[in-house]
């Protein structure tokens, strides 16, 4: 985690000096599967400046493939560390997404619990904003006008990644990240799995129990393709040796 935060800090500083813009992705199993099914989503990942793995199956697969990843860095664990970084460096942060009022709740909570005083603002766009050119441009302009050092997008995947990728040069933010439900966890509007389940790599099961209808297709149908991908990579590596 420390290495990831240091990389992000370095990237913010370099990009601020050079007027450049970067983004970070945090792939889980579902994302990996979607990069194989969706060429545009793969393009988003191929052009990311930093990839932080948010899934133990990916870490474990990397060990078998002898291309070991150091650790899992979940977006939910990363976001509080980004706030710590923002406090240390007094970075301006913009939270874009989540449901109406959730970002404000999260901001109030971190300011109350940790006495953070770094500049931070949140905005929840209307549903379907990306389909209306006028509303979309208004959303982009809100971010541009604030001139944040870090943009935290909470639109869900792949919508969040596409938003960052498609409008990176317009947004002009040194570092942008799609952070999933992290803001909901901080605000307390969505309960995260108990710590013991997080440490046991059972967070996915907790989410399945909470939302069985929505998560069944994702975990047991869509994500099952990950095993096929892993076997293909394993066989290809063996043949290469």
Automatic annotation (TrEMBL):
One of its GO terms (molecular function) is hexosyltransferase activity. It comes from the Bacteria. InterPro entries: WecG_TagA_CpsF (IPR004629). The keyword Transferase applies. Keywords: Glycosyltransferase, Transferase. NCBIfam families: wecG_tagA_cpsF. PANTHER family: PTHR34136, UDP-N-ACETYL-D-MANNOSAMINURONIC ACID TRANSFERASE. This is Glycosyltransferase. It comes from Priestia megaterium.
């Amino acid at each position: 985690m420390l290495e990831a935060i240091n990389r992000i800090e370095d990237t913010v500083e370099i990009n601020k000096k050079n007027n450049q813009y970067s983004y970070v992705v945090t792939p889980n199993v579902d994302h990996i599967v979607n990069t194989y099914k969706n060429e545009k989503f793969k393009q988003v990942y191929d052009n990311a400046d930093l990839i932080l793995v948010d899934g133990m199956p990916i870490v474990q697969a990397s060990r078998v493939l002898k291309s070991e990843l150091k650790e899992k860095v979940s977006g939910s664990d990363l976001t509080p560390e980004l706030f710590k970084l923002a406090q240390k460096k007094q970075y301006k942060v913009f939270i874009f997404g989540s449901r109406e009022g959730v970002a404000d709740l999260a901001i109030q909570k971190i300011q109350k619990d940790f006495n953070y005083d770094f500049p931070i603002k949140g905005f929840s766009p209307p549903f379907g904003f990306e389909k209306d050119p006028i509303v979309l441009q208004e959303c982009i302009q809100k971010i541009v006008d604030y001139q944040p050092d870090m943009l935290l997008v909470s639109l869900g995947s792949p919508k969040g990644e596409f938003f960052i990728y498609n409008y990176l040069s317009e947004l002009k933010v040194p570092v942008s990240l799609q952070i999933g439900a992290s803001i909901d966890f901080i605000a307390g509007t969505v309960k995260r799995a108990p710590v013991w389940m997080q440490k046991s790599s059972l967070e996915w099961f907790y989410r399945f129990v909470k939302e069985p209808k929505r998560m069944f297709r994702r975990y047991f149908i869509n994500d099952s393709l990950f095993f096929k991908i892993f076997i293909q990579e394993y066989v290809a590596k063996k043949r290469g040796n």
